[in-house]
Specification:
Elements lengths: L1 E7 L2 E8 L6 E6 L9 H12 L2 E6 L4 H5 L8 H15 L9 E7 L1 H12 L4 E7 L17 E6 L3 H13 L4 E6 L11 H18 L1
Parallel strand pairs: 3-4, 3-5, 5-6, 6-7, 7-8
Antiparallel strand pairs: 1-2, 2-4
Length: 210
């Protein structure tokens, strides 16, 4: 693992980068509110992607000061998306990742930020996966997304499932919504996060190898 400091949208943000030998793609993670690049759930998904030959970048979307502030920046989708766009631009120029096809993985509110960023960089982002995401918060950007998008929700998370289904009906890009049986919003039940990781890896493999 190597570390980068990404200068993006007025902030210096830490990122952990893993590039397996022979990697053919890279996935940039966007965590949800109240989380960080240390999220154990995102790291579990990243580990599976690494095993499949994909590089991963887990970055903080907020500075430590912003993260301690109440509300505000955690739910500022425009700001979070701007920082993801800055990270995308850096990765497409970074020697270790510039040649790799790029995908975005977003969780919770990070799913909305990932979709807004994908709409802003349609030629760079080849695929998007959202886990328990809030794609509805991407608003008008949904119709601008060109990247094949997979929405993964838990069986026992009906409100978020409904929001994802509505967003999927707005997306103009090829998209699927998949429901993980026995899973709640955080996919804490045995085997459910492993299912998310496997489905995300399959989606990225298909899109980034193409």
């Amino acid at each position: 693992m190597t570390q980068l400091v990404l200068d993006t949208a007025g902030a210096h943000l830490d990122a952990d980068v893993v590039v397996p030998d022979g990697a053919y793609g890279v996935v940039l993670f966007a965590h949800g509110s109240g989380s960080s690049r240390h999220s154990p759930r995102n790291r579990a998904v990243a580990d599976e992607l690494n095993r499949r030959g994909l590089a991963t970048v887990l970055m903080d979307l907020l500075t430590a000061e912003e993260d301690r502030a109440d509300g505000g920046p955690r739910f500022d989708i425009v700001l979070l998306a701007e920082r993801l766009v800055g990270a995308i631009d850096r990765l497409t120029a970074e020697p270790s990742t510039a040649r790799l096809a790029l995908g975005l993985f977003g969780a919770s509110t990070g799913g909305a930020a990932a979709l807004v960023a994908a709409a802003a960089r349609p030629s760079a982002v080849r695929a998007v996966v959202c886990r328990g995401g809030r794609p509805d918060l991407a608003g008008a950007a949904l119709v601008e997304v060109r990247s094949p998008t997979l929405l993964i929700v838990g069986e026992f998370d009906p409100m978020v499932a409904d929001l994802n289904e509505r967003a999927r009906n707005v997306l103009s890009a090829p998209s699927e919504m998949r429901v993980v049986p026995g899973a709640s919003h955080l996919f804490e039940e045995p085997g459910t996060l492993e299912e998310v990781a496997a489905q995300a890896a399959d989606w990225f493999t298909g899109a980034l190898r193409a």
